[in-house]
């Protein structure tokens, strides 16, 4: 599959990932062959990119850490939960439990390919962000060798870290301190939510140097779960809200390391997150271009690149970890 800007879509291209509306409805399923009317509709939506495939790209057999059904199920569950928060008295958190358990199971089962994660880039923004932060945090917890109870506590806190925004319908009048405090109060009053998970909502905007909110906690006074979520939250927010490419976000995280963010956890995160995510079109030092189709866990900056010759209808695979003389020298923005 290849990541492609919506503005560059053409008829007869095939979707490698389904397109979902903000309320979770399927708009165009995986495998849809695009028509002019579909492309026009996609350009009307707030979509920046989609993933496409073709007969040659499909031969690459990409194996992602999270399946499409599991990602969509959790995104829809948390969206439904956030829609109910603040509107009715009492919330049944069982609405997310099964979907969250499925995500945890898939990440544990696919622990050898943690770097092979890329989100869909669309859906309801708050729910989409919450799911991405949850998955990124789980990857870090797994690398931290958390047991299953710790992973469940971390995942719950990460998924619900911004529930305070849902309580106030993302009100711009509310400050960072408001949504963290109100989210914590809401979660700690629910018996089904572990107290440590509630503290993630409370502390994820605290900063390593003590300059954060709401209580100006410093260093290890901030719970490790919250410090993990702070790294994942910062990464996803910069990707999503500021439209920065992964390599630029990685550079920015390095500048925050030891200041706003726990340097040890930033280093852990960067050992998982690739500079060139799945589906990225890259320029090689051989003056060729290809698409990233796999990311070695032990060396995420040396991806597997799929080369296609559409004139000859041929493909070849370059494992850059095994070919030190060939380097990625740039990203091609399609």
**Computed structural class:** alpha+beta
Strand content: 5-15%
| Structural domain tally | 3
Number of helices: 11
Strand order of the largest sheet: 9-8-7-6-10
CATH topology name of the largest domain? Hypothetical protein af1432
Q: Radius of gyration, rounded?
A: 20 Å
CATH class of the largest domain: Mainly Alpha
Low-confidence stretches: none
Measured between the Cα atoms of the first and last residue, the distance is 13 Å
Describe this entry's structure for a reader.
It is a single chain. With 334 residues, the protein is an alpha+beta fold. The protein has three domains: 2-53, Molybdopterin biosynthesis moea protein, domain 2 (Alpha-Beta Complex); 68-270, Hypothetical protein af1432 (Orthogonal Bundle); 281-332. 41% of the residues lie in helices and 13% in strands. The chain has helices spanning 36-44, 68-84, 94-109, 125-143, 148-159, 163-167, 176-188, 195-203, 224-241, 246-256, 263-270; strands spanning 2-5, 14-15, 19-20, 26-28, 49-53, 281-284, 289-294, 304-309, 314-319, 328-332. The strands form three sheets. It has a five-stranded antiparallel β-sheet with strand order 9-8-7-6-10, with no helix packed on it. It has a three-stranded antiparallel β-sheet with strand order 1-5-2, with no helix packed on it. A two-stranded antiparallel sheet has the order 3-4. Helix 5 (148-159) crosses helix 8, helix 8 packs across helix 9 (224-241) and helix 10 (246-256) packs antiparallel against helix 11 (263-270).
């Amino acid at each position: 599959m290849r990541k492609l800007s919506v503005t560059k879509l053409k008829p007869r291209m095939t979707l490698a990932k389904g397109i979902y509306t903000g309320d979770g409805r399927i708009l165009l399923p995986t495998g849809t062959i695009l028509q002019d009317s579909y492309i026009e509709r996609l350009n009307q939506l707030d979509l920046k990119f989609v993933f496409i495939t073709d007969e040659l790209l499909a031969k690459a057999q990409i194996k992602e850490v999270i399946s499409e059904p599991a990602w969509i199920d959790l995104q829809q569950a948390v969206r439904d939960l956030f829609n109910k928060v603040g509107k009715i008295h009492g919330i049944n958190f069982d609405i997310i439990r099964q979907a969250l358990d499925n995500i945890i199971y898939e990440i544990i089962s696919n622990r050898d390919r943690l770097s092979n994660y890329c989100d869909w880039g669309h859906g309801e923004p708050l729910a989409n962000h919450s799911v991405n932060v949850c998955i990124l945090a789980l990857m870090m917890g797994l690398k931290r060798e958390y047991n299953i109870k710790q992973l469940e506590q971390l995942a719950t806190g990460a998924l619900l870290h911004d529930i305070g925004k849902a309580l106030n319908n993302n009100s711009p009048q509310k400050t960072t301190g408001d949504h963290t405090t109100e989210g914590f109060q809401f979660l700690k009053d629910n018996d089904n939510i572990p107290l440590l998970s509630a503290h993630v909502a409370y502390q994820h905007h605290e900063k390593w140097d003590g300059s954060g909110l709401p209580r100006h906690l410093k260093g290890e006074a901030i719970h490790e779960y919250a410090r993990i979520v702070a790294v994942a939250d910062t990464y996803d927010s910069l990707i999503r809200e500021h439209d920065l490419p992964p390599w630029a976000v990685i550079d920015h995280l390095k500048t925050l390391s030891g200041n706003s963010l726990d340097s040890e956890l930033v280093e852990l995160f960067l050992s998982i997150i690739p500079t060139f995510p799945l589906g990225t079109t890259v320029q090689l030092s051989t003056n060729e271009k290809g698409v990233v189709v796999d990311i070695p866990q032990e060396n995420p900056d040396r991806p597997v690149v799929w080369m296609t010759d559409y004139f000859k209808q041929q493909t070849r695979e370059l494992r850059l970890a095994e070919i030190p003389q060939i380097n990625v020298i740039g990203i091609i923005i399609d």
